[in-house]
Amino acid sequence: QVRLVETGGGFVQAGGSLRLSCAASGNIFRINHMGWYRQAPGKQRELAAVTDNGGNTNYADSVKGRFTISRDNAKNTVYLQMNSLKPEDTAVYYCNANVYRLGLGTADYWGQGTQVTVSS
Question: Are 24 and 77 in contact (CB under 8 A)?
Answer without folding.
Answer: yes
